[in-house]
Design goal:
The chain has 269 residues and is of the alpha+beta class. The strands form 2 sheets. Strands 4-11-5-10-9-8-7-6 form an 8-stranded mixed sheet. The chain has 2 domains: 104 residues; 157 residues, Gcn5-related N-acetyltransferase (GNAT) (Aminopeptidase), CATH 3.40.630. The protein is built from 8 helices and 11 strands. The mean pLDDT is 91. α4 crosses α7.
Length: 269
Amino acid sequence: MKKLKNTLDLFVTSLPFSYFSTPLYLDFAAYTFDRNEEQLVVMQDIVCPHEFPSLFLPTNPLNWENCSITFTRAEDIARIRTEEIEILVEKPLDAEYFYATEAFVEPAGSFAKKIRSFTSKYTYRVLPSYDRSGIEAFYKNWKTQKKEPSITFDESEELYLFCLDHLDDYAIKQVYVEVEGALVGFAWGMAHPNGGWVGLHLKVDYAYSGLSRFLHHERAKQFASTAQFTLGTGSFEQGISQYKQELHPSVVTPYSYILTGGRRAPMAE
């Protein structure tokens, strides 16, 4: 098994459009090894670090037997059952949230109202880049506003640092907002090789009402010609899931963790 690196041109057609199939995330978290003439893409399990399940359903049905998969969709489970492969464990995991870019570029209703609550109250400046020391100082302050970190917080922080180290390497588009000369929030995003784009980290000083919606809007403008994007999952945190629901996703894809056995023996006649 080896660590993935520089995966921009790899796995583009074999993995579905997802937050977790971006070249950046694969380089950050994924490993690969060969099984049945297929290069499997796996990731270390957060809860059980000795396990390395496949991120998504492998392409070769031979690899559906005796395997574990993290992000299994309902249609994937149906395909496995069609092959008469036993599913030993099926555990609902989380859901990924997908959105229409246009709804963020041309916001309406409560979304637009919250943006106006920020733009009408504060004198602000939008910037396409920022010095690293300023980002780090803001992030340190942002962490103090977190009440109880979720089970995935450490991984999220490591991914944030990975992004910060590679903003140019992955052509990450950046939006920073200052109020009275101080950084109060930022949002990052990147194009996905399979089409669509991915909303990466978005951090705000919670004292500024409407700022998160404003950052969503400004970031989406960078991808206005791309129809769909994902903000990933709820990260096992109810507050994050609720927030992403409030952004009115166009598609919500539930995932399950599964563990399979072998093929069922044919019934004796």
